[in-house]
Amino acid sequence: MTLTQAEKAAVVTIWAKVAPQADAIGAESLERLFSSYPQTKTYFPHFDLSQGSAQLRGHGSKVLNAIGEAVKNIDDIRGALAKLSELHAYILRVDPVNFKLLSHCILCSVAARYPSEFTPEVHAAWDKFLSSVSSVLTEKYR
Amino acid sequence: MVLSAADKTNTKSVFAKIGPHAEEYGAETLERLFTTYPQTKTYFPHFDLHHGSAQVKAHGKKVAAALVEAANHIDDISTALSKLSDLHAQKLRVDPVNFKLLGQCFLVVVAIHHPSLLTPEVHASLDKFLCAVANVLTAKYR
User: Fold this and answer.
1) Helix orientation angle between B97-113 and B5-18, rounded to the nearest 10 degrees
2) Which chain A residue is nearest to residue B141, measuring alpha carbons?
3) CATH 1.10.340.30: does it fit domain B5-138?
C-alpha cells in the first residue's frame, strides 16, 4: 500500500506533536497492549511489566524511536527499518497479528492525547502508516 | 512481501502441473470456501450456491484464470491484476480477511489433487504467492 502526499503530511504533522512525548506514549501503548491483549506478554518473560516499570519505559522509547525513524524516512520506510526487519524475522519472530494490536494501542494513546487533531482523515493516515511499518517488519519472515 | 526466485519457480511449476484443471479447482475452491467459512456467502446473495451450481463453476473459472494470469506475470503481479485490484477496491470491497480463507481453500484443493506436489517448500512458496495476489487485490482499498 502506498501513502498519498496528504497522508504523509498528516503523519509528519502529528509526529511533530507526538515526538516530545514519545517516551511516555511508547510506555503507555505497551501498557495498553499488555492489559487489553495479555497474550502479548508472552514475548516479554524477562520484563517487569508492572505500571511505570523502567523496562517498559525503556522499551516504549525504543518502539516510538523506530516509528520516528520511519516518519523521518517516510518515503523509504523499508530502507530505514531494514535492520529492525531482520531482527524481527530472524530473532524476535513476533507473530504478525501482534503488530495490528500494537498499532491499535499506539493509535489509542495518540488519540487520547490529541483528541481534536485526530480527525478521521488523520486517523486513517496513521493507521495506513503503521500498517506499512508492520508490513516492513514482517517482510523477511519468509 | 517479496517472492524469491525459488518461490517463483515453485509457483510456476505448480500452475504448470495444474494446468488444464485450473478451472475445476477454482470451482472446488469456492465450494470449500462456502462450506467451511459460511460467512463468505455474504458476497454472493445473487448466486445459487448449491453443489454443482453453474454460477459457482463459472465464477471458479474466473478466479482460477486470475491466479493463472498472476502466475504467468509473477514478476509484476500488480500490473497484471491492476483492473481486478480496482474492481475489488471500488466495487466488490471483499473484506481482506477473506483472501486468506480463499487462499487456504485453494491450497487444500491442490494438496488433495496433487499430494506429492505440495512439499513443505512448494507449499510455502504457493502460500506466499497467494498472499502476494491478495495484497495486490487489496492495495487500492484505501
Assistant:
1) 60
2) A1
3) no
